[in-house]
Amino acid sequence: MSKVILIVDDNESLGVTMKKILEMKGHQAIFVDSGYEAIDTIKENDSIDAVFLDIKMPGINGVDVLREILKIREDLPVIMMTAYAVEDLIKESRLLGAYGVLTKPLDFDKIFTIIETTTQNNPGEILIVDDDESIRKTFQKILTSRGYKVIVAKSGEEALSVANFSTDIAFIDMRLPKMNGFETLIALRKKFHDLAIILLTGYYNEFSDLVRSSLKESAKTYFEKPIDMIKIFHTIDEIMSEKK
How much is the pLDDT for 234? Predict the structure, then answer.
């Protein structure tokens, strides 16, 4: 299905090439070479399905553009692009809710896959268990934009009260108040045998033993924060395919 894709990069050669390749695949592509123009384009065009945004640009950098775009359309998938080792900006992008980060030179097969997955409608229910409100909101915003029903909990106890037999996947932070992530996993597993559980942690060194124990107790996998949503969606797609 044809999609409307916005490309934002101060490298005109790359932008024009990317536009041509996407159009050859049947998509409508819009190329702009500045962050300010990108913001104006989003304001004027509500049909855009996804944005590929360079991180390091003159005038206004990609992270600040991302922040403004999400104020206008908080559910719009924005994929950051970079040719530089700008770990601080990459981390900030992910915390703000970027869909993912691609490194240059670009892999167009990966780009085509991302375009397909960002615009899929995926019925299913996902539980997010994290005491960090910003993490819960970011997950909820991005997953909802892909058609998932999302329920959230800020503790293991709350997770046990909101989870149900329709819940397909649970993302559980390891560092929770009272019940930690491992204890929450065990309690959920007793009630919901078919629930796919994925662990999250920003403190792997502190929780490495519990992460390993959780994996032995049938957790699917774990992700370290800040979260790479491209990897998250790849895992979700695999799990949902297994459930069909």
Answer: 87
